[in-house]
Amino acid sequence: ELVWTGSSTLPRLHQFPNLGPEKSGPLTHIDFGGYDPMAKVKRPDFELAPQLEEQVGFLCASMDAYDAGAVAEAKRIAVALRVLLYDHAQSVSLLGQVGLKRCDFADTAGDLIRGNLGSESRLTVMEISADRARFIPRRAAPPRLNSNWRTFERWWPASVIKTRGGETFSRAEIVLTMADQDGGAHIDPSLEEKYYRLTRDNSLNWTYTGPDGTTVPLEGPQSATIRQIGHEVELTLQRWAVGTLPEQRRLPRRERRSN
């Protein structure tokens, strides 16, 4: 039979020598000797700035890799966005800790079209070539200051995708599902049903007919959407916290105000 005892540093495992095999069984007692394994120490405030620069650096590196053709980097972008933006019961987002979620966020999607019976993917555009069509991020149209900035409370849950069947996806849903279920930080054995339909079953119902007359379904817009959300966060940081961005990505002040 085994028992945990402990000290002020790490718990130790001991075996009782006087118990015969008939007394063997599961772990019955944990004694940490005054040490609380669940205790936490508040992070010093001076650590937040370098942590933010580091996480933004991760985001920018993954966006560069995506732009160079590594579309799978969308999964790492999703994880970086989760760290920066997502609050839940056990932790606070990094942008929340430094107060940047009180700022307006760049919105390059706008609203879903009221009454539209078709599908929409507001953060992407279609790129069509001779042999294929695909979704790419909508990065060529930066937002105007007066009309395309939203509070985080409106920006994060805003719907940016609508399927042919009427299912919608917010920025939060796309980012968190990719990060938590679809290969970002976890690969779950099952996926949310509507996300599965979007990413594997062409629930947007968009197809491409090639030069040979063959019609194929388009791959889902999730990766391009994630990349565009990363672009929106970068635009937001350009306006409110340009010093957090890598040096080569910092725009001159005049350009920052025009985005």
- Total number of strands: 11
Number of H/I helices:
8
Which structural category fits the helices and strands?
A: alpha+beta
Quote the beta fraction. 15-25%
Strand order of the largest sheet: 4-8-9
Largest sheet: 3 strands, antiparallel
Measured between the Cα atoms of the first and last residue, the distance is 67 Å
Helix content: 25-40%
Q: Low-confidence segments, ≥5 residues, pLDDT <50?
A: 1-24
Q: Estimate the global geometry from the Cα principal axes.
A: globular
Mean pLDDT equals 86
H-E order:
EEHHHEEEEEHEEHHEEHH
| Rg result | 24 Å
Tell me what the structure shows.
Helix 1 (48-67) packs antiparallel against helix 2 (74-85), helix 2 (74-85) crosses helix 7 and helix 5 (171-180) packs across helix 7. Strand 1 (2-5) and strand 2 (12-15) form a beta hairpin. The N and C termini lie far apart (67 Å). The chain has a three-stranded antiparallel beta sheet. Strands 1-2 form a two-stranded antiparallel sheet. The chain has a two-stranded antiparallel ribbon with strand order 3-7. The longest helix has 20 residues, at 48-67. It is an alpha+beta fold and 259 residues long. The protein has eight helices and eleven strands.
Relevant terms:
alpha+beta; 259 residues; globular; two-stranded antiparallel ribbon; 8 helices
